[in-house]
Amino acid sequence: MSYLSRENSNLPDELWNQIDSHVIDTARNVLVSRRFLHIFGPLGIGTTSIPVDDSDNLDEVIEEGFITTKGRKYVEIPTIYEDFTLLSKDLENSQKLGYPIDLSKAAYAAEVCSKKEDQFIFFGNESYGYEGLFTASGINKLKKSDWSTGENAFSDIASALELFSIKGVYGTYALILSPDLYMQLQRIQPGTGLLEIERINKLLKGNVFFSSVLGNNKAVILCPEARNMDLVIGQDLTCAYLEQKDLNHSFRVMESILLRIKRKQAIIVFD
To answer: rRNA-binding: present as a keyword of the record (predicted)?
Structure first.
């Protein structure tokens, strides 16, 4: 029996293919963090933990015949999921009349699961000790000006890039914004004939993103090179079969992921 337990459903392969297509297509449209983070994996559902190194402090310690690694810890890769149900009578009716089954619930579950992934990457999970890009201890913070006026946004971002240079953080940079800040940049900058977002896009070579899970008035700029951070994937986003209850079929959209921050100096949050 496979981990996803699909063989217990007695559902046709064609239906599973349609469910997989809805889940993957929805995730591609919703997920933001995978657009700038390097992917490590998928490693398989059996990979339950992985080392997380602090690159600035990583060293092998040897003392009196005892060797250990400083700046390394092993962290469990958590599972994120969202369940949905398909009614047996809908499946039967679809097969009888020959029209496609409505898989909106599968797409919605994939959307919720994708948002949970981004939420986890940006803010971690304090209850279980996981850090996110905004919440990790030891990251850089810069005071944010009013981005709705003047060239404050451009100046703040330029200051962040200068700080990266001082810290010796080089590579590709990415800016992630809450939707309200992103919309504040959709205005003509006086004297330039350019939208503020166009100037910033040129500065960051197009690596500007926004995500609804950030809420309001939040921005972070990163150097998301693989040596600084990555996204570990155990089980990539997929759909498993849970059970048939009250004649209806229950499914689980799931994945196992972990954000590894290897160098916290590669993150600047605008406060």
So the answer is: no
Amino acid at position 23, single letter: V
**CA-based R_g, the chain, Å:** 22
Amino acid, res. 33: S
Please tell me the pTM assigned to this model. Answer: 0.93
- Same domain? For 24 and 101 the reply is yes
Residue 96 lies in a domain: yes
Q: Give the tens place of pLDDT for each residue, 137-175.
A: 999 999 999 999 989 999 999 999 999 999 999 999 999
Q: Are 224 and 192 a contacting pair, CB within 8 Å?
A: no
Q: How many domains does the chain contain in total? A: 2
Instruction: Give residue 44's pLDDT.
Output: 94
- For residue 196, give its domain range: 140-222
Residue 96 has pLDDT above 90, yes or no: no
pLDDT for 1 equals 54
Q: Identify any residues that bridge with 85 across adjacent strands, giving them in sequence order.
A: 250
